[in-house]
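can u do me a favor
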């Protein structure tokens, strides 16, 4: 098993790989790759959608208005940005802040999986529909499952997955902000549960006994 220092070094290597990534067309319009930032040993990781204009310019996630709300909510639960790791489904900004395309999410996914593998969070909060659908691998929308923690295998890790509304969606809609805040305030109690047991593969179905085996059990042979 890799030590914390080794994992940090490997994460740095993934960051350098991402900085040179040309796997999709977003590399043509980006100013900076926004790899993610925070504590490389964090228990708690946030996954947003994609960098916006401010993030693209600074190379850091959630540094605009939505980021300020995220920082405020963290403060309300006694945490700061440096306690957690913040990443996105896409590491480059889609022009004009359009939605990510499926082929872009596919091309970028391996970076997120490597981040999860190396940071080893026990809890992952998905922010908004894109991250939630991507990491759950299901189309269920955020309005149906926000605030419902579940144990999920995500790529290489089993984590407590906790879908939340995206802070940007809460900026101008007080009812969404109220739901986001209520869900957010439950993070400490879910974190306190500690690492989940690895998801158990369902046992393969037991084949029906063959006639010979049945006869065996009956002692006929
Ligand atoms: N919105 C996101 O989803 N990610 C960011 O980094 C900033 C805004």
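np, heres the sequence
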């Amino acid at each position: 098993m890799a030590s914390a220092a080794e994992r940090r070094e490997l994460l740095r290597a993934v960051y350098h790989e991402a900085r040179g990534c040309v796997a999709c067309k977003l590399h043509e319009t980006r100013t900076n790759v926004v790899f993610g930032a925070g504590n490389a040993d964090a228990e708690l990781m946030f996954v947003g959608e994609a960098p916006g204009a401010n993030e693209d310019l600074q190379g850091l996630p959630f540094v605009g208005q939505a980021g300020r709300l995220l920082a405020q909510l963290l403060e309300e639960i006694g945490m700061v940005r440096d306690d957690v790791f913040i990443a996105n489904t896409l590491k480059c900004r889609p022009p004009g802040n359009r939605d990510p395309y499926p082929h872009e999410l596919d091309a970028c996914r391996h970076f997120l999986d490597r981040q999860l593998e190396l940071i080893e969070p026990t809890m992952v909060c998905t922010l908004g529909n894109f991250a939630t659908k991507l990491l759950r691998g299901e189309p269920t929308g955020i309005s149906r499952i926000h605030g419902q923690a579940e144990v999920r295998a995500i790529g290489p890790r089993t984590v407590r997955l906790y879908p939340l509304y995206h802070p940007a969606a809460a900026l101008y809609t007080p009812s969404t902000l109220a739901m986001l805040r209520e869900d957010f305030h439950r993070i400490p109690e879910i974190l306190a549960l500690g690492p989940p047991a690895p998801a158990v593969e369902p046992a393969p179905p037991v084949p029906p006994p063959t006639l010979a085996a049945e006869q065996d059990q009956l002692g006929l042979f």
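Residues 4-199 form a domain with the Uracil-DNA Glycosylase, subunit E fold (CATH 3.40.470.10). hope that helps!!
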